[in-house]
Design a protein that fits this description.
This protein has about 475 residues and is mostly helical. It contains 20 helices and no strands. The protein has one domain: Growth Hormone, Chain: A, CATH 1.20.1250.20. It is about 75% helix and about 0% strand. The longest helix has about 35 residues. It starts with a helix and ends in an 11-residue tail after the last helix.
């Protein structure tokens, strides 16, 4: 019999699985499907730029007023708006709906991370385990289920677009333009390889994405417990000054650990944007055609999903540092290989090996970085995860913003440089945490009492946050 907290983790995970089956599928296709004048990657840039904006103030305000559950539900509605924008893609439909999605993006992810952290802190005393270990397991379960959304979303796109007749026949001279090393022709001009599917197939796909997005909202609204409702009521009854809530994300930057984790967090967004924006366009679509994008990303999603669960469990025995090392070495190997590989249809298996290895590395960046923020900042979780989304989104913005303006070689060098910087800064925080572990929140800090919150504040395990 699973515990109540584990049940809630499963509900959150399934809700995100449904929502990102839709959004993840659309994101993977933007650089190829809406390639005209760079409209697709421009919309992705707007999404993550507005996530940065929303990270500055929205997550603490929404989470403390609505609670994690209803913040998730409201924010999911913003994602569905973007799916509607893709029914008739244009600058006047994609850009506004991209902005709406971005404004809901940071509250959605911050609320999810805060919810899993609360659930882990509640469950740890019951299982007689460390809070950090249970939080790691919960994030592992979440990403195991969530990352499989890449499988289902991209499977839908590949099967639906595979029914079309506009399949590109790619001549040998066009194949010479694929991959790194041939800048101008492939970066600045559209090729016939990204032939747009028939409009009826696009309607079918986007309509299906809208349906699973609405299903996600229903799942969370009906089945998720409101485990922080007591905190929310207390906050509404004893309101803090709006200014302090508004500035909570920035005030946490006084903590040197947040600043030191910025390169790691930016890299997390940069490496994801590279795979979904550059690899899909300059390798898969260029050499195989757009109908293969989904199949390549399925390999990424399947690998990411399985490794997320495994690493979430393994971290209890190995700690985070060895897993980060594995991810860094894996990404480094892929980055160097992509610099020299010239993609060709005769090398079909190779197109799927790269996403699979990338998924292994991304599983570490996602599960362990999220868990790290939850362990380091248990008393400022809303602001901490807002910072996480803000800096990760900056990585996405950088990756998508220069997509149409600089050569692929330079993009790979930038990715490589950020990876090297991450391997220098992250160990500093990990070493400090090993020497001076952050005290976890006690169970009483989250339990719903019939009395007032001061009773929870008296929990002996709760110590004041001294880093601010």
């Amino acid at each position: 019999m699973i515990s109540r907290n584990t049940k809630n983790v499963l509900v959150v995970s399934i809700g995100f699985l449904s929502m990102f089956t839709a959004y993840g599928g659309l994101q993977s296709l933007q650089s190829s499907l809406n390639a005209e004048a760079g409209m697709g990657v421009a919309s992705l840039s707007v999404i993550y730029a507005s996530i940065i904006l929303s990270s500055m103030f929205l997550p603490p305000i929404l989470i403390k007023n609505l609670g994690c559950k209803w913040t998730i539900v409201v924010s999911m509605g913003c994602y569905i708006a973007y799916s509607f924008g893709n029914l008739s893609p244009g600058w006047y439909t994609l850009i506004p709906t991209s902005f709406i999605l971005g404004m809901g993006g940071s509250p959605l992810w911050s609320a999810k991370c805060a919810y899993l952290t609360i659930a882990g802190n509640l469950q740890a005393p019951k299982d007689n385990k460390k809070s950090a270990d249970v939080i790691n397991q919960y994030f592992g379960i979440f990403f195991f289920i969530f990352q499989s959304s890449a499988v289902w979303g991209n499977l839908m796109s590949s099967l639906i677009f595979g029914q079309g007749t506009n399949i590109a026949d790619i001549p040998e001279e066009d194949l010479e333009l694929c991959g790194a090393g041939t800048c101008e022709e492939i970066v600045f001009n559209s090729t016939s390889n990204s032939t747009r599917p028939e409009q009826k197939l696009i309607y079918t796909l986007v309509g299906s994405y809208i349906a699973v997005g609405v299903l996600a909202m229903i799942i969370v609204a009906v089945f998720l417990d409101n485990i922080d409702s007591e905190q929310t009521r207390e906050f509404r009854g004893n309101r803090e000054p709006l200014c302090s809530t508004f500035l909570a994300t920035f005030l946490l930057l006084k903590d040197w650990r947040v600043v030191t984790l910025i390169p790691l967090t930016i890299y997390s967004g940069l490496e994801q944007s590279f795979l979904s924006g550059e690899y899909t366009k300059n390798y898969v679509t260029c050499a195989l055609g757009i109908h293969f994008v989904g199949f390549a990303m399925i390999c990424f999603g399947a690998s990411n999903s399985l490794c997320s669960y495994g690493f979430g469990r393994l971290a209890e025995y190995t700690g985070r540092a060895p897993l980060f090392f594995i991810a860094a070495v894996t990404n480094l190997s892929c980055i160097l290989a992509l610099l020299f590989w010239k993609p060709h249809p005769d090398q079909l298996p190779v197109f799927f090996v790269f996403p699979a290895l990338w998924g292994l590395a991304d599983a570490v960046w996602q599960t362990q970085t999220n868990a790290l923020y939850g362990v380091l900042f248990p008393r400022d979780k809303e602001a901490a995860f807002a910072n996480y989304r803000m800096w990760e989104s900056l990585g996405f913005v950088i990756g998508f913003a220069y997509s149409n303006f600089i050569c692929l070689d330079f993009k790979i060098y930038i990715l490589l440089a950020m990876l090297v910087l991450t391997t220098v800064t992250y160990p500093i925080v990990e070493y400090h945490e090993w020497r001076n572990p952050t005290p976890p929140m006690g169970e009483g800090a989250y339990e719903q009492h019939s009395g007032n919150m001061p009773e929870a504040a008296m929990d002996k395990n709760v110590t004041p946050q001294t880093s601010l």
